Amino acid sequence: MTxxxxxxxxxxxxxxxxxxxxGYKVGAALLTKSGKVYTGCNIExxxxxPTVCAERTAVFKAxxxxxxxxxxxxxxxxxxxxxxGEFPPCGVCRQVMSEFCSADFEVLVVKGENSFTEYKLSExxxxxxxxxxxxxx
Length: 137
Ligand code: THU
Prior knowledge:
This protein is of the alpha+beta class. The chain has helices at residues 3-13, 54-64, 91-100, 121-124, and strands at 24-32, 37-41, 70-79, 106-112, 115-120. It has a single domain (3-134), classed as Cytidine Deaminase, domain 2 (3-Layer(aba) Sandwich). It contains four helices and five strands; from the N terminus they run αββαβαββα. A five-stranded mixed β-sheet has the order 2-1-3-4-5. A hairpin with a 2-residue loop joins β4 (106-112) and β5. Bound molecules: tetrahydrodeoxyuridine. Tetrahydrodeoxyuridine binds next to β1 and α2.
């Protein structure tokens, strides 16, 4: 699975996004160390706060399937599902990633057709609160 293929899977996952309130449709594709790909989309709710992002959908699908070791995630999105620049993961999704992923976990943010920017989790979530901090202070 190349980075480009993972980004294509994220773009493809946009088609299932349920975003009747914001109109922003997002897709994600998570690659496990075992070589599986879990996709996710954002799922909004009339009560707004139960809305879940594409990245967390992908992570939760994987974890509920018994997978916890992840290599990288690709994310793509935009108004009406059209990609017109980077749509980076929100803070809550970064926090969820930090629960299962190491500092060098890669986040590929799609910014256009055939182009993406690669970030390390530690770069987009520095000084994170993670499982290591529990029971240590
Ligand atoms: N959204 C995601 O799916 N991922 C992010 O990391 C940022 C935001 C979704 C949530 C909501 O449905 C819409 O984009 C607008 O915030």
